[in-house]
Amino acid sequence: MNDDDKQQDPVARLRAADPAGDIEARAGFADEVVARMTGPEAVPMAGSAPVADLEKARARRRPRWLPFVAVAASIAIVGAAGYGIGASEGGPKSLADGAAPPITLQSNGRPESVAQGGMEPSVGSGAATDQKMSSSTYPYGSGRNAFSASGLGTQAGTAQAYAYDPRSASSSDKVAALAAALGIGLPVDLRDGSWVAGPQDGSAPSLSVSLDGMLSFYFQNPQVNPWKCEGDSACEPTGQPPSEDAAIGALRALLAAAGRDPAEFEFTSQVSEGSPTRTVTAKPVIDGQQVDQGWSLEMAEGGAVNANGALADVIALGTYPVVSEQEGFERLSDPRFSGAATSLPIALRDQASTTKEWVAPTEPPATPVAGTSVSWPVSKVEIVSARLGLTTQWQPDGSVLVVPAFAFTDAEGGTWSVLAVAESKLDFRAF
Fold it and tell me: pTM of this prediction?
């Protein structure tokens, strides 16, 4: 590496090293992907299915029931998955309105094993629906977007920051209490980087609590899982989902058993079309703001099928300097911050739900002629409002902060998020 390369911005070096950095997707590629994913014959690939479509896919195929780690279970659902493309029982229901919705940054410093970009779960762009969107402009972050705004605040300030305190909750007694609430008896063992209770081979109810920055746990009960099939025969789950009160009551009891106050959470409940289970989530509320790392429980007639959450308490870290709304807006165009669209603009929600089934072409595209203009679409995004909230940020050592972030709303109803902490408290060193 020569001296010029050493001085080059790390982001620029990364882009220069990308062998596909100059490749543009063909015109209409994004439309085809949406059509394939939302059409009547769409079968989701692993890690790429909108939440509301999972049950339809399960009805077409025998599900491969697999446990997954709690960190992956708390994937930030934004964009298409967040709107639940497909039918559901009236959509998400909230029993305790009032707190501002959570803010989730693209990647959030999360481990790469947690899916973060692409069509699902992270969909975002302010691109107009009549544009042929390429993979470099939709749906990723701030690439080739022209942002505009007026009337944003110019006053910097301070805001409270927080952190998860995993060591205070990492004990056999704490895990045993949670296991007991889930119907799992002793012993509780510490092995392979996790507290575990119950058999870990998927044959019976089991609990695993990871020694990560949130003390994330995952519970599974294959004995009541209506999606679990034996042998190679097709699986046709039966039964009716439990009531909203029953499912939320079960999650509230679980929170209490873990030493958490259910009154500090806001609950939502949802049933996908044809599903024999109900999913309920609980998002912690801090200073009137929901935090994006919550608890979740899936319940069937026979009881809890699975559950996940974070056992660590959240503690205050004091105030941090934050930039003004205007400076936060300018970060949307700064590659160091990669402002991410964290909810789909209204126009694109309509497009995603009404796109017709993809029709296979019968011939390749026409050969370009001399003088053909080079397609370089730029999406115009007009920011109309800003909100200061909180987001989780995973640190290189595995610890987890809850820090100030801005959520900007554009003229089409999309939401863009960016870190609000001032540069004086940011460590830009690569790791």
Answer: 0.66
